[in-house]
Amino acid sequence: MDAIRVIGGSPLNGTVRIHGAKNAALPLLAATAAIRGSFVLQNCPEILDIEITRKILDVLNIQTRRAGDALLVDSTRMQYAAIPRVLACRLRASVLFLGALTAAWEKAEVPYPGGDCFGSRPIDYHVQALHALGVSAQAEEDAVFAEGRPQSATVELPFPSVGATENALLAALGADGPVRIIGAAREPEIGCLCAFLSACGAKVRGIGTSCLTVTTGELHGAAFPILPDRIEAATYLCAAAATGGHLTLTGARAAHIRPVLDALQSAGCEIAEARGALTIEAGPLHAIPPVVTAPYPGFPTDIQPLLTAALLRADGVTVVEERVFRGRYRHIPALRAMGADLETAGQILRIRGVGHLHGTEAEATDLRGGAAMLIAALSAEGRSRIGAAQILERGYEALIPNLQAIGADVSEA
Ligand code: UD1
């Protein structure tokens, strides 16, 4: 998909089924490179990042096959290989093969990962975690190399990095005794990886806390359901809020996006949870108290651009502070081109609500920034064209048909 054409101005109404979470599925796929077995990953989203990861698994002689919404993975004949640069550079989660390969083969060669560019995205915490486990890991000019058997040890993360926590968990599968991770990230996707590793025979204690202990055991394959995508859910909630719509999301978990629901409610949306579904009914929106992004359970950085897009026409001024990633405001010029009144000063963004937005032509800058442009375009009057739209295919399954089904005038351009 090269571009998305949008004719904005219609409220979104109807029901959307939330798919499995990209950021939960990717670490599980990396884990299958550390555990010999057959796996059934239920609710696995059909998105570009999963397709690229399947190609990485193929290089490791790990077979994957679709069966409805499940991905079947067979790693019984896995072989060692360096991760090819052409694949590693296309997504961030390729870095997770560092821990997985080290666990399985006591060595790894992983080129620097790709994914969205928010200024610098170092991997020093990942390397430090491997060092703490006694693995000799070295970041060279354009790849990371690891060698050695992980030892039973304590890893102390200086910041609750999602990827570094996942890499430490995966490397721990190759250790000769318990591995303790202090300062671990607590995102639901980490809980999902821990539960998956438990289903595969590892003992994981402290799930949901910042202190995890993993003891590897007789590891084997498993059937496992991937948790619903909280960022996809937030995208549709924010699109409903921006367009004054009324949506029901099935499969969404309110508990995973509490600060987002609080923000939308305080902006004037009515939100209800019942029997595994979330309903949002948007009215006229107004500004909300400052929003500050933070690791879980704080306000998610990935949802910051989406909420911004929802508040562009809210009455008053909302202040947003992005504290997780510098350079996460690359989509702002496109929103300004639609008539949004946005002012940035360092990591602070001031949103002054405007009466109306108008369509524009812009290029998607990154996955969630592109989704923010789409939300703004849906609430703008007239026609927009969002180019570089394949970026959105990295993380959203069935985006265009889903939006069409809830009344949006969108199509591939
Ligand atoms: C993951 C998510 C991404 C989300 C982010 C934060 C995936 C595939 N991606 O990314 O969607 O936005 O969590 O919730 O799951 N940092 C370092 N050194 C490191 C690692 C991280 O300085 O070695 C810094 C980063 O630059 C950033 C912060 O720590 O400022 C958080 O990054 P991290 O939690 O690691 O995010 P990712 O795992 O890359």
Describe the structure.
The chain is of the alpha+beta class and 413 residues long. The protein folds into 2 domains: 3-19 and 228-412, UDP-n-acetylglucosamine1-carboxyvinyl-transferase, Chain (Alpha-beta prism), CATH 3.65.10; 22-225, Enolpyruvate transferase domain (UDP-n-acetylglucosamine1-carboxyvinyl-transferase, Chain). It is built from 14 helices and 23 strands. The strands form 6 sheets. It has a 4-stranded mixed beta sheet with strand order 21-22-1-23. Strands 2-14-16-15 form a 4-stranded mixed beta sheet, with helices on one face. Helix 5 runs parallel beside helix 6 (162-172). The chain is globular and about 60 Å long. The termini are close together. 53% of the residues are buried. The mean pLDDT is 97. The chain binds uridine-diphosphate-N-acetylglucosamine (UD1). The site of uridine-diphosphate-N-acetylglucosamine has 20 residues, from helix 1, helix 5 and helix 6. Uridine-diphosphate-N-acetylglucosamine (UD1) binds next to helix 1, helix 5 and helix 6.
